[in-house]
Structures are given as C-alpha cells and as structure tokens.
Amino acid sequence: MGLRAFAAPRPFVVAAADGTRERVAVEAELRSRGWRPALSPAETGMLVVCGNPGAALSDAIQTVWRDMPEPRVRAPADLDGADLDGADLDGAKLQGGAGGSRPALDLDGVGMADRADDRDGLRLDVLHVPLGPVLADWPAGLRVDLTVQGDVVQAAEVTAVDTADGPSWDEGQRAASGLDSVSRLLRVAGWDAAGERAAVLRDEALGGVPDDVLARRFAQFARRVGRSRLLRWMAPGDVRDRLGGWLREIGSALDGEATRPRTPWDASLAVLPSLLEGAELAEARLVVASLDPDLGTAPDG
Length: 301
Prior knowledge:
The protein is α/β, with parallel strands linked by helices.
C-alpha cells in the first residue's frame, strides 16, 4: 500500500465556457468527499475537465495535461471512479501512460526579456506574462497577456479563447451566481476559509434553502467580509468596491428585490486592459477576479 492511500486526491479542475454548472457540481462533490482542489497542475496527477472546450482551450488543456506529474488520470466530471491509487497499474484509467519519456522541451521562439525606460526613467526588463486560460479560480475561456516592467503592468491584451451561447446561470439564480464570483475572488485573495464559506452558501442557494434562512446566514458572512482588515490590505480599492457591489446585489436578491443582470462579458473584456494597466503584477489576478466575466453567456447579455 503506497502513501497515496493515506492522502485524499486533489484534482485540478478546468472549466470550459459552457462548463460552469459542471464545475459547481464538481466543487460540491469534492467538498462532500473531503477533497480539496489543486491550485496548480504541478500539485497533482488528476485532471477534471468540465464542459466541452473548443479547439483553442483544448490545446491549452492538453499542454497542461502533458506536463502533469505521472501517474496521471483524467477523471470524469462526476468523479466516478476517480482515484489515483493503483492508476499506474490500470491502463484503462490512465491516459498518456505511466512513466515513459516526455516530449523534449522546445525553446525555439521563446522570447527573452527586453529593456525599456519605465515611468521613472529607469531601464528595466520588459517581460511578457500570460495568464490563463488554464488557471485555478480563473474565468473559463479567458486569456490575458501582460507586458510587465519591474512589477508594474504596462499593457494588457485580453482574448476570449472559448465561448458558449447558453447562459451559465438560470434566471432567478442571481444570488448563487454572485456567491460563486465572491468565492473565487476571495480564494484568489488568499482567504480560503471565506471563499469556501461563500461556495457553501452558493450550493445552499442552488439546493433550495429558503431565501429567508439563507439571507440570515449571508448577512453574517457579508459583515465578516466587509469588516476584514486583511482584505482591505490585500485588495486594491476598486477591487473592494466591486466586491462590495456583489455583496449588495446578493443581499438584494435574497430579499426578493430587483437586481441588475450580470455585465455582458464583452463589456467586461473591453474595460479590463485599462484596469490592469498601471496595476502591480500581484494585483492583476484580483482585478480579473473582481470582474469575473462569464464567457458562457452570449455577448449581448
């Protein structure tokens, strides 16, 4: 019996633009099993793909899959039979094979750092940093390419590499969709406990817990988040403002009040570069998470 028998699996979960519902279900199933999702594919040998990725996202997923440690397994979204224990002995469960050689690393065409004057007149390295489309707690189907000098973003280019036509959330699920976005933002900020609590509230909203009961639970959670000194220190002011807007929208939805529809993803992507330019690199993911564009919804909203 190997050490894997004593450690719970930590799947790395990737969602296509049409895979939000599957991702939410996978997260709930992981919680019920006492498993935690991996934050990086390097941490695990288990990959779960939710939805139906298009060609560009499939290529990115395949790159991540190829570089995951072996033995590795691609588990279905329902996690049926998902277990790495003995996977290296079961060729039917293992994709890509156990052991064996990996393709040689091709460094042709890999750009080196350039140099340019920064805003203070100093010559600093200019780096090109891609974010997405395969990241934990990242908007499905989104890629952001940053030009960074020092630790400051000089330019940003956003690309929708995977989209879908159908809505990720049904009408009447405004509270659940907002809680999902809050959960992902808090995890990106490093506040895992609060992110997990938001995810539990999301699942309770989807599971039919009465709104009045859920509203009381949410109010306590919202007060805790709103008073957090750590969050005020970690997150830029505009990120906190958008988080506060989400919390108010969720509260209104649970109280039966009218709420605004989610911002169409093409509108979010249009403003994202200007929000990222001038931000510190460490803040970039927080800025993206505070918009959480839903590429599974038609661009016209």
